[in-house]
Amino acid sequence: MPCSVLAGALTAGLLQHRSARTARAEERADSHRQDQLGAVTDFAAALDAHRSAMFHRERLALTEASTEHQLEAQTRSHDTRAAITAPHLRLQVLVPELAGPAQQAADATYTLRKATDRTELDARRHAAKEASVAFIAAAATLLSPNNR
Q: I want to staple 80 with a disulfide (CB 3.0 to 4.6 A). Which of 12, 26, 50, 103 is the partner?
């Protein structure tokens, strides 16, 4: 076998190997990005559900609704609060760069508790929504395909 044929076969093999390795690395990166997007989405959805439950709970408390309705709302808000924990931890592990904005959005949501009147409750709800929007904007910037 002439040297040129052998060299050509080796070169082709090396190029094929490198191409396969590059494809695997791109697949892993895409899979990781999808996991990150899932973590962001799950956290944002859990936070939205909790914000809604807390607003309803506090609104009932301010209007002095029946004890039964307040207890139902309290149970729901406890459930939605507990539902934040796993997505928040997953987000911190998969996208640590978003830990700060995520915590700010969570803290803003938690402050809906014990508002003294409807105006304060509405203001706190607005601030919580704005913190969530800021979190999502930070996630969009960080996870944009153009930013990778």
A: 50
